């Protein structure tokens, strides 16, 4: 899972969540990894949730065989089918591992959580930049002065702190999926968190009592206290004074330590260990890692390309456009980074291991609304909060590591394609009027766009929430289903009537909805198979042939990594592909339009984000035409 999982788990299918805002209580200071439990200083008064279930082995293998079939040739499928049947044979290794997993599931409220955190995130060694961290693009602003730039940043800061205060006070309502209450534990981890690089695996640091944020300006780091002596959040105007102080404080050369967070995790782990040998560096690192969150005050990125404004915004928030622009004006390990550029680009970037999309989307809507509604007044007395520039003493080896990180991040930035656009022909309400699921409709269009471009189906990941269960995170919706591929082939290759095509479309939608139901109820296959594989590895059992079969690798090579991250405001989340020859595709279905962000890699000649976006638009329109034509013909 090392080269596919981390990117594939971004976001969740929010159409299944009835979310207002969600509560958390900040954990106590500490480190946790996949092998230690998250710390919590107070019990939350939420509904007690059932433990994550362990699916039946025969059910998982049946679904595995069904979902792998569209991806294999006839001969390949025959081999994979037999391997799966052998794995599940009575008295075989599959049954043995299943019993072990059921025993584990009977003892633990969530048998998956530690394995998932480790496999999907903390043991993942590629950079979190592009490969794991998503960015969320806020509505663009038009700043007429430096003061307006800083004032808007101050409002986002105060909005985030107010959201945190509501969380900490326990005044946010329980999330529900229909009538089912959902697990709220992810919301304890949005603030005060930071991923710490290790040589082989990372940890997550979470501090309770922080009273400061980190402001990054011109690649320099500043500790800014955001609470008064009475413990109250400072006023927006106070924060503005602090930001003004930061921008005037020091404009000399930067040590460039932010670039180190863009590196591969083992490389950054070595540098982090070296940094910590110096007490000045150690104190600066602790201030960054223990901060509530980071505010990045960006300069305008100097770029020469033909990208649209929305695409440029997405790229700046995702990676900062390289060493000469804003990639060093970041700390990519922080759970939450707010970003405001002097040219009006603004949004956030978040480290994915502690949380999925909903807490982030809720936060974004809250603070954007706050910033839009808040007016700063100059007729009151205000103070300037304590601001302290953090310094670093770099050895020659660390200087060299920073220079290498700059070269590497520039290469990665040059490799990323992005196509962020708003599909404005129709939105989710129009799809609902056709009595079709908007999410299923969009997922089918994504798979069909791939088939249209490449001539064959692709392994297709969509994340679903398992928050009905204690500590639930995500499960895979395998959207390359036989019914979806069948509809795509019928539509693209066969001259059938609109009514026949619509029947195939309805079948595809129903198949997708059925798989979604399995996933959100803890009955899908991918986390189950991960658990069985991890038990074999940890138990010293030879890895079963099921996991060594080429069909298994093919079905986990997520060339389509997709997620729905819904937001009330006009926003979209973006991230990189999780395979070299794949696409990332995130979307926000709105009432009358659908916001998309499609990514690919320039280094692969077979993929193109621009062409995929055009194919996706065409598929969406054609599918709508199929549905409307059939409905009209039946009247």
Describe this protein's structure:
The strands form four sheets. The protein has an eight-stranded mixed beta sheet, sandwiched between helices. A six-stranded mixed beta sheet has the order 13-19-18-16-14-15. It has a three-stranded antiparallel beta sheet with strand order 1-6-5, with no helix packed on it. Helices cover 42% and strands 14% of the residues. It is α+β, with helices and mostly antiparallel strands and 635 residues long.
Unreliable runs: 1-44
Report the helical percentage: 40-55%
> How would you describe the oligomerization state of the chains in this entry?
single chain
Mean pLDDT comes to: 91
Biggest sheet, open or closed, and with what strands and sense?
Answer: 8 strands, mixed
Structural class: alpha+beta
Shape: globular
Rg value: 24 Å
Strand fraction equals 5-15%
Gap from first CA to last CA = 50 Å
Strand order of the largest sheet: 12-8-7-9-10-11-2-17
Helical segment tally? 20
Number of DSSP E strands: 19
Q: Could you write a compact summary of the structure shown?
A:
The protein is an alpha+beta fold and 635 residues long. Helices cover 42% and strands 14% of the residues.
Essential attributes:
eight-stranded mixed beta sheet, six-stranded mixed beta sheet, 42% helix, disordered N terminus
């Amino acid at each position: 899972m090392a080269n596919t999982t981390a990117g594939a788990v971004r976001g969740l299918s929010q159409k299944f969540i009835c979310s207002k805002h969600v509560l958390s209580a900040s954990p106590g200071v500490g480190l946790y990894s996949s092998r230690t439990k998250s710390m919590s200083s107070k019990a939350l008064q939420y509904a007690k949730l059932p433990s994550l279930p362990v699916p039946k082995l025969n059910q998982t293998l049946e679904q595995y065989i069904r979902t792998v079939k569209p991806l294999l040739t006839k001969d390949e499928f025959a081999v994979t089918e037999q391997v799966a049947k052998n794995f599940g044979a009575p008295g075989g290794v599959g049954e043995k591992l299943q019993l072990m997993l059921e025993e584990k599931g009977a003892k633990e409220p969530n048998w998956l959580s530690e394995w998932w955190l480790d496999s999907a995130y903390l043991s993942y060694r590629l950079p979190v930049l592009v490969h794991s961290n998503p960015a969320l693009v806020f509505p663009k602003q038009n700043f007429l002065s430096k003061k307006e730039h800083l004032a808007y940043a101050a409002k986002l800061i105060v909005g985030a702190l107010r959201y945190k205060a509501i969380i900490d006070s326990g005044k946010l309502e329980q999330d529900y999926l229909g009538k089912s209450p959902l697990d709220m534990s992810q919301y304890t981890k949005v603030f005060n968190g930071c991923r710490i690089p290790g040589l082989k695996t990372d940890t997550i640091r979470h501090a309770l009592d922080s009273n400061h944020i980190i402001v990054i300006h011109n690649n320099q780091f500043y500790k800014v206290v955001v609470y008064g002596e009475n413990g109250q959040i400072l006023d927006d105007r106070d924060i503005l004074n602090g930001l003004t102080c930061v921008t005037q404080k020091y404009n000399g050369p930067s040590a460039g330590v932010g670039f180190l967070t863009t590196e591969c995790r083992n490389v950054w782990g070595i540098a982090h260990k070296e940094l910590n040998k110096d007490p000045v560096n150690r104190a600066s690192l602790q201030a960054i890692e223990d901060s509530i969150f980071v505010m990045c005050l960006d300069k305008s990125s100097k770029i020469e390309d033909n990208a649209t404004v929305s695409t440029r915004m997405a790229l700046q928030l995702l990676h900062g456009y390289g060493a000469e622009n804003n990639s060093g004006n970041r700390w990519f390990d922080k759970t939450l980074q707010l970003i405001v550029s002097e040219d009006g680009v603004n949004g956030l970037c978040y480290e994915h291991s502690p949380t999925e999309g909903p807490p982030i989307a809720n936060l974004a809507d809250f603070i954007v609304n706050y910033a839009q509604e808040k007016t700063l007044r100059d007729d009151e007395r205000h103070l300037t909060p304590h601001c302290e520039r953090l310094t670093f003493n770099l050895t020659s080896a660390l200087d060299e590591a920073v220079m290498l990180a700059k070269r590497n991040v520039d290469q990665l930035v040059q490799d990323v394609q992005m196509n962020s656009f708003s599909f404005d022909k129709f939105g989710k309400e129009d799809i609902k009027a056709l009595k079709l699921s908007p999410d299923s409709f969009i997922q089918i269009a994504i798979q069909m766009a791939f088939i249209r471009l490449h001539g064959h189906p692709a392994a297709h990941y969509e994340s679903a929430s398992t928050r009905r269960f204690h500590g639930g995170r995500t499960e895979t919706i395998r959207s390359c289903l036989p019914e979806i591929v069948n509809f795509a082939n019928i539509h693209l290759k066969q001259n059938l009537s609109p009514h026949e095509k619509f029947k195939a479309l309805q079948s595809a939608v129903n198949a997708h909805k059925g798989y979604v139901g399995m996933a959100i109820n803890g009955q899908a296959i991918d986390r189950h198979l991960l658990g069985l594989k991890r038990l074999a590895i940890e138990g010293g059992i030879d890895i079963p042939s099921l996991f060594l079969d080429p069909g298994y690798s093919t079905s986990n090579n997520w060339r389509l990594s997709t997620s729905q991250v819904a937001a009330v405001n006009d926003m979209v989340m973006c991230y990189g592909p999780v395979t070299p020859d794949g696409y990332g595709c995130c979307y926000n279905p709105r009432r009358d339009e659908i916001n998309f962000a499609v990514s690919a890699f320039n280094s692969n000649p077979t993929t193109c984000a621009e062409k995929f976006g055009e194919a996706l638009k065409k598929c969406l329109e054609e599918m709508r035409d199929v549905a409307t034509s059939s409905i009209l013909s039946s009247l």
